[in-house]
Structure formats: C-alpha cells, structure tokens
Specification:
With about 350 residues, this protein is of the alpha/beta class. It is about 35% helix and about 15% strand. It has two domains: about 160 residues, Glycogen Phosphorylase B (Rossmann fold), CATH 3.40.50; about 180 residues, Rossmann fold (3-Layer(aba) Sandwich). The protein contains 13 helices and twelve strands. The strands form two sheets. It has a six-stranded parallel beta sheet with strand order 3-2-1-4-5-6, sandwiched between helices. A six-stranded parallel beta sheet has the order 9-8-7-10-11-12, sandwiched between helices. It is globular, with a radius of gyration of 22 Å.
Length: about 350
C-alpha cells in the first residue's frame, strides 16, 4: 500500500534530496529543470544525483548539486562478486545520506530498489505501464501517472513527477554548466588555432548515423557560411566513425578553412565553445540540447526522431525536419544501426537560409 505524504506534511524540513536518472547524456541535461525547481523551493536542501558514470560530465558543474553518485556500467565486467561489492557499497553510501525525498526518474528495477533502500519518507516514481505489479509500487510512496506523456516534451515529463510536492511555480529552464577553467581553456585553444571574431559551431555527427546529414550537403553549407565571413569550428565525439565523417566533410570544402576540434573537447569545454558561438548548427544530438540550454542561436536538423519528446527545449532558433521534405519511417520502427541517412531529404539551401536568418 502506497502512502501519499507530501513534503509540506513532513515534521522536519527537507534537508537532503536524491534524484535518480540512469540514461544517456542528453537525458541527463533534460533533468536540470527538475534540479532547478527543487533548488528554488528547497534552497537549504542538499540535492544529490545518481547517474551513470559516463554521463557525469553533463552535471558535474551544476551549482545546485551537492554530490554526484555514479554507477559504472563496466562493473559487470569485473565478475559477479566484484560487481555486487560495488553495488552494496553504493547503496550503503546512499543510505548514510538519510534522504528526506527521493525522486526516481528512471524506469530500471535497480533504481526502484535503491529508492526503497534509501529509507526516505517521500519516494516518488512514475507509474510506468511496464512496471505494473506489486514490487514497483512497494518501492515508492507515490507513483505519478504517465498517461499523457506521449503529448509532452521530455522536460515536461520529468517535471510532472514533482506534482505530489505541489511546487509552484516550476522552473522549466534547462541549464548546461561549465567552469571558468573550461571557458579559459577553450579561449586559449581558439587563439592557438587562429579562430578570431565571431564563429559558428557545427556538430554534423551523432553516435547514430541515421540522424546525420550527407557530407556533401554539410560541406556545401559550410562553404556558403564561410563566404559570409564567419569562422567555422566543427566538433564531434571521439568515435572513429564520427572523426572520419568530419574528415570527409572538411575535405569537400577546403576553401572554407574549417577548424576541426572533433574528438578534442570534454562535454563541458564543448559547452563553453557553444556558449561563445554566434550560431550552432547540428543534428539531433547532445550538443544540440546543450546549445538550446545555453540560449545560443541554433539550426537543428531532425529526421525520424520523436519531435514532441526531443526537439531542442525552449531553443532560440529553428528546427528543420526532414519530414517536411519527404516521407519518414516511424521512429519506433528504425534499425538504429542502419546506414540510411534520413536527413538527406533536407536541401542544403534550407539550412543555409535558416542559418543566415539566425545570423542577421
């Protein structure tokens, strides 16, 4: 039987809050409105986060977070005994924090178990249809409906979990934070590479290539923007396929004098780079969400992703959807390993025109 205790009914003030989200980098960035709302309403509380180790950099500089606890997905490669040892140590650390509120945004069983073992008097989770049964409700004191989530952006879905706490107003702004050291390091790097004045950041890659545009059209766009007098800085992740894509693009537009920082930046240094840009151009990827959060003008290229869920949140700029230029498959039917480039329907001139509008 679930209880429905609210934070306002507690006999003691809220001192410590744990937020759990076990997903990818972009998902972590889109939890920041929840962090910001909790910080706004509980300014004296310590807010912790439980997340995957590889996503830590997304939130490591967030000013409202007290401690970041991480799960290393490589633990399971160390054998069952070592893996269990890591898990037990983590749970003990969390139990020692004596949380008053746990916000479980995740859908994994591990997150539910941690939520229960935390012992927090308020333990909120989502009423996921796939988790209907006795165990999931047992781990939480209250579950929030997901019935209307199909019509909500991911940020709005996340914020809905706070409904039982009756927090108004909600802070819906996503934030991407970086340190002064990150900013200085990027400034020095740009100076070393001869990038002066206004520059445009272009992120043509995603870890899923079906989200990418053709190298030829991207090169055509870079050439056109170079002719407008802007310095061009291309970025990507460190994966070899992404680096090869950037090499092909730059080879196709040698006259554009592109500076490549592909695979050379941490996420927080990338944020500092985007923050100083006159424009960001990119596909549906983490840097796109970072640009939106940083309020950098952007042109985002979308293919068969769920726009309702993943469009750049509160972005300053334009979204160009391939579906406006040709048919797209249902996002749920896509083989994520396909070599198909669904963004190919987007003409280069549409992106060039959008970029020029944002730069004007």
């Amino acid at each position: 039987m679930m209880t429905t205790v609210s934070a306002k009914q507690m006999s003691r003030p809220v001192r410590r809050i744990l937020i759990i989200k076990l997903r990818h980098h972009g998902d972590m960035l889109l939890t920041t409105p929840v962090i910001n709302t909790l910080s706004q309403h509980y300014p004296d509380a310590e807010i912790d986060m439980l997340m995957y180790l590889e996503t830590r950099d997304m939130l490591a500089s967030h000013p409202s977070l007290h401690q970041l606890f991480t799960i290393d997905r490589q633990w399971k490669k160390q054998g069952a005994r070592a893996h269990m040892g890591h898990e037990i140590k983590l749970v003990r650390q969390l139990m020692q924090r004596q949380y008053d509120v746990v916000i479980n945004l995740a859908d994994q069983w591990r997150s539910a178990i941690v939520t229960k073992l935390s012992g927090a008097p308020i333990r909120l989770g989502f009423d996921f249809p796939k988790r209907r049964g006795k165990i999931w409700p047992f781990c939480h004191t209250q579950l929030v409906s997901t019935e209307n989530h199909n019509a909500l952006h991911t940020v709005e879905q996340n914020l809905s979990i706070l409904t039982p706490l009756n927090l108004t107003p909600l802070n819906s702004q996503a934030t991407m934070s970086f340190s002064p050291e990150d900013k200085q390091a990027v400034a020095s790097l740009l100076t070393q590479r001869g990038v002066q004045g206004k520059y445009i950041v272009i992120q043509p890659t995603s870890r899923w290539f079906f989200k990418c545009w053709t190298e030829e059209k991207m090169a055509q766009t870079l050439t056109a923007l170079h002719q407008q007098g802007y310095a061009l800085v291309v970025t990507s992740g460190p994966d070899s396929r992404e680096l090869q894509m950037v090499e092909r693009i730059t080879a196709l537009c040698p006259q554009a004098n592109v500076t490549s920082l592909a695979g050379q930046l941490t996420l927080r240094k990338l944020a500092a780079l985007i923050d100083g840009a006159a424009l960001f151009i990119g596909v549906d990827s983490v840097p796109m969400h970072m640009a939106a959060a940083l309020k950098t003008p952007l042109v985002a290229l979308f293919g068969p992703s769920k726009l309702t869920f993943w469009r750049p949140w509160q972005a300053k700029g334009e979204v160009i959807w391939a579906g406006d230029f040709g048919p797209l498959p249902d996002p749920d039917d896509i083989d994520t390993h396909t070599d198909e480039r669904y963004l190919d329907a987007i003409p280069a001139q549409a992106v060039i025109d959008a970029a020029l509008r944002q730069l004007s």
